[in-house]
């Protein structure tokens, strides 16, 4: 009986207990946000995660009327920063930039994750997606994807492809594409895209399936050739380049999407305010323009649509990674 009275008293006081013993003040949740918020970027400054985090933090802060502080928290790929938010106080004040890598691909890359992307996070909203462009050294004899596949089949492991490291999107895109094409190519991992491009430009590596945002300047300058893009439709910045689907690779497509996530136990009033704010952000032209300049495609999905996307992508990529024997180790 005393326990029941205590629970009622807690509710009357505006406090409720949630998973893990965390306490959330309901009145405070309704007044949310009344102080600065934090956006965790699970990678170092620079790159896709950081750009999305900083642009979104700026615009979301304007909409909510509070400062959104960006905190770069890297380590073990994207694991450390992402896990820190999964275990943060679920009060709506701590968010994480979630993308295909840390929300979906990590499930298939690591045998045991410290967080569960579905159970530990709630989607606030999606921001932008980027496709991949299959860049090649300028003197590569094969002029298209079909001919490089044919050559690779006749010459197993002779074709080389670069990446920014094992388990990166660049590694996964090419490894899965090569597997689906029935070829064996040699993976040459580097520490980041810049190092990889040095050998692509020097003619020492054949292929580099890179994010469109970093590949575009080299493509526009004619310093590399491009054979295909991974988007489901032709990329608006590369309208003359065929998709992998058009090039004959079944229904394979890959887009690195980015959005904002919070701990799953975040109170509904706070979550709904964040979602409403994010919905306003993605409609702003000054938000979309930043990403469109670098080849990004703004995403305007509802929270429900975003949740469906995450679950669908997780099922698809877990199987693709397993079938292609791709891991981060």
**Count of individual helical segments:** 12
User: H/E series, N to C?
Assistant: HEEHEHEHEHEHEHEHEHEEHHEH
Looking at the overall shape, the CATH architecture of the largest domain is 3-Layer(aba) Sandwich
Runs in which pLDDT lies below 50 for 5 or more consecutive residues are 1-14, 18-22
What's the number of structural domains? Answer: 2
Name the overall outline: globular
The CATH class of the largest domain turns out to be Alpha Beta
Record field, number of beta strands: 12
Short description:
With 329 residues, the protein is of the alpha/beta class. Helices cover 41% and strands 20% of the residues. It has helices at 2-12, 26-30, 48-64, 79-86, 100-109, 145-154, 169-180, 193-201, 212-220, 268-282, 285-292, 303-323; strands spanning 15-17, 23-25, 37-41, 68-72, 94-99, 121-136, 160-163, 186-189, 207-211, 225-229, 255-263, 297-298.
Please tell me about this protein's structure.
By secondary structure, the protein is an alpha/beta fold. The protein folds into two domains: 162 residues, Bordetella uptake gene, domain 1 (D-Maltodextrin-Binding Protein, domain 2, 3-Layer(aba) Sandwich), CATH 3.40.190; 99 residues, D-Maltodextrin-Binding Protein, domain 2 (3-Layer(aba) Sandwich), CATH 3.40.190.10. It is built from twelve helices and twelve strands. Strands 3, 4, 5, 6, 7, 8, 9, 10, 11 and 12 form a ten-stranded mixed sheet that branches. Strands 1-2 form a two-stranded antiparallel ribbon. Strand 7, helix 7 and strand 8 form a beta-alpha-beta unit. The longest helix is centred in the C-terminal third of the chain and has 21 residues. The chain starts with a helix and ends in a 6-residue tail after the last helix.
